[in-house]
Specification:
524 residues; mainly alpha; Sodium/glucose cotransporter; 21 helices
Length: 524
């Protein structure tokens, strides 16, 4: 911060405040506008299953990428791995978006319509005829997704504290929580989806402007000059892999992160719900292209900017960036755009700030909506089978409010147990769900026992590997650092074990299969 004058900082702060006020007004107005379409459970959760291609695609993309990718992942992996980290963004676009939409969207939309499923736990109950499976999967969502949402606040707070030195990070995070709660509680998925579209436009504009503004900053001097500078800095630090496009000695770590962050979306309920809500198959084709393009722009932009951190951020002890990995991207932005005092660069910085705010709020809304439905739609009817529709909607609204508050409290209290859950949450949730979900869509002979094997194995795999590595290393932090590898292992085990157990156990009744797949549907 020493390189940014007080006058320039004041201008950045004023522009940021104006942008925040305008952004907040728009988000709240959209929430009130969408209230009329959120009067039923299906309307609140899925927008009546009438969401178009552009809205669905942007809802998927903005839920995929939160501020964590810019502040956490891009800052750390760009610093450690260098230009090869850009492959994570490419992998997210191709594997986590394009292939995911091609393989999952049409089947998911069709089967959830036939089963009348509005949530992932309801899909499991309808597909496999098991209420216990619905309860179990709802608990997995609640236990691991609510703490995960706390991570969203962390990345955003780093940038705000950089722009507003001395600001209370709790105030920053409370603003995000309140705004998200208002439009989510009033408008449900429709408000979330419409706001996601607005936020997505801001994210694309901010990402493109950010790449060019930083690349052609005098400190970088363009793409080729920047590449040469990173190579020189890497060589000086003894890290010759920074300009190796395949990661050099880091290729295994890179591969695990690509697989976890890309294939992980195939089993995350907050991502899968976007397929439930899209209105028709024509929209699916359009959304596939739009979503992939969005992911490519955001993913590549984030990791590319992270790579340039070594040009702007001093190296501290043991090759670490000064002030830690979470401050790499904020320091890049402030030094590249907060120095010259021009109105244009100040506006650019404000747009990028809104990019990160948008990414955080959209991800938070998607996770909270999924978590609240796990209780009100999946667990509450088990306890009170005759609960009325309007009471379910009321419960959804109250639980959304409760879960936003809970994620906020988890973020500010920094409880060790919660932080540990955050490290493993993505891998556990996707590891539990990916096998039973994909095989349930495509393989008619998938049995209830096979699905249970997948649901349980995801959790058991991560817990077992964590225990083993903690005991052998004598340090739980070592196990935490291996969470991407554990998540990938959990997903692989889940995908493999489901068909194996299904072949060895009692088949599902023919009538149930027909009701799930439909007479005209293919499959084996």
């Amino acid at each position: 911060m020493g390189t940014v004058s007080m006058q320039n900082l004041a201008q950045v702060q004023m522009t940021t405040i104006v942008a925040l006020i305008l952004f907040s007004i728009i988000m709240v107005l959209v929430g009130f506008y969408a209230t009329k379409r959120a009067k039923t459970v299906e309307g609140f959760l899925l927008g009546g299953r009438k969401i178009g291609a552009w809205i669905s695609a942007f809802a998927y993309g903005t839920t995929y990428f939160s501020a964590v990718i810019f502040i956490g992942y891009a800052g750390k992996h760009g610093w450690d791995i260098g230009y090869a980290s850009i492959w994570i963004g490419v992998g997210n676009a191709i594997l986590g978006s394009l292939i995911a939409w091609l393989i999952l969207a049409k089947r998911t939309r069709g089967m959830t319509h036939r089963l009348g499923a509005k949530t992932m736990p309801e899909f499991f109950e309808g597909r496999y005829g098991s209420t216990a499976m619905k309860v179990y999967s709802a608990l997995i969502i609640f236990v691991f997704l609510v703490p995960y949402s706390a991570a969203v606040y962390k990345g955003l707070g780093s940038l705000f504290v950089t722009i507003f030195p001395g600001a209370d990070i709790m105030i920053v995070m409370s603003i995000v929580a309140i705004l998200t709660a208002i439009y989510l509680v009033f408008g449900g998925y429709v408000a979330t989806a419409y706001n996601d579209f607005i936020q997505g436009v801001i994210m694309i504009a901010g990402a493109v402007v950010m790449v060019f503004a930083i690349t052609y900053n005098p400190a970088v001097g363009g793409f080729s000059t920047g590449f040469a500078k990173i190579k020189a800095l890497g060589d000086a630090a003894g890290n010759t892999s920074l300009t190796n496009w395949f990661g050099g000695s880091n290729w295994k770590f890179l591969a695990y992160n690509i697989m976890l962050t890309s294939f992980g979306t195939w089993g995350l309920p907050q991502m899968i719900m976007k397929y439930y809500a899209i209105k028709d198959e024509k929209s699916i084709k359009q959304a596939t292209v739009i979503s992939t393009s969005f992911a490519l722009i955001i993913g590549v932009s984030a990791y590319y900017v992270g790579v340039l951190g070594r040009i702007f951020v001093p190296i501290a002890e043991k090759g670490m960036p000064k002030d830690g990995f979470d401050m790499v991207v904020p320091q890049i932005l402030m030094q590249a755009l907060g120095n010259d005092g021009s109105l244009i660069t100040t506006i650019i910085l404000a747009v990028i700030m809104l990019l990160l705010l948008s990414a955080s709020m959209s991800t938070l809304a998607g996770v909270v909506l999924t978590s609240s439905s796990a209780i009100s739609v999946d667990l509450l009817p088990v306890v009170h089978p005759n609960i009325k529709e309007q009471h379910k909607v009321t419960a959804l609204r109250l639980l959304c409010l409760l879960f936003v508050a809970a994620s906020f409290l988890f973020a500010v209290t920094n409880i060790t147990f919660i932080v540990n859950l955050m490290s493993f949450s993505w891998g556990i949730v996707s590891g539990c769900f990916i096998g039973p979900f994909i095989w349930g869509l495509y393989y008619k002979k998938t049995t209830k026992a096979g699905a249970w094997a997948g649901l349980i194995s995801g959790l058991v795999t991560v817990v077992a590997l964590t225990t083993i590595y903690t005991i052998t290393s004598g340090d739980f932090k070592v196990a935490m650092s291996m969470s991407p590898q554990f998540g990938v292992c959990a997903m692989v085990v889940s995908v493999v074990i489901v068909p194996v157990v299904s072949l060895l156990t009692k088949s599902v009744p023919v009538d149930h299969i027909k009701s799930s797949f439909g007479i005209e549907t293919g499959g084996r």
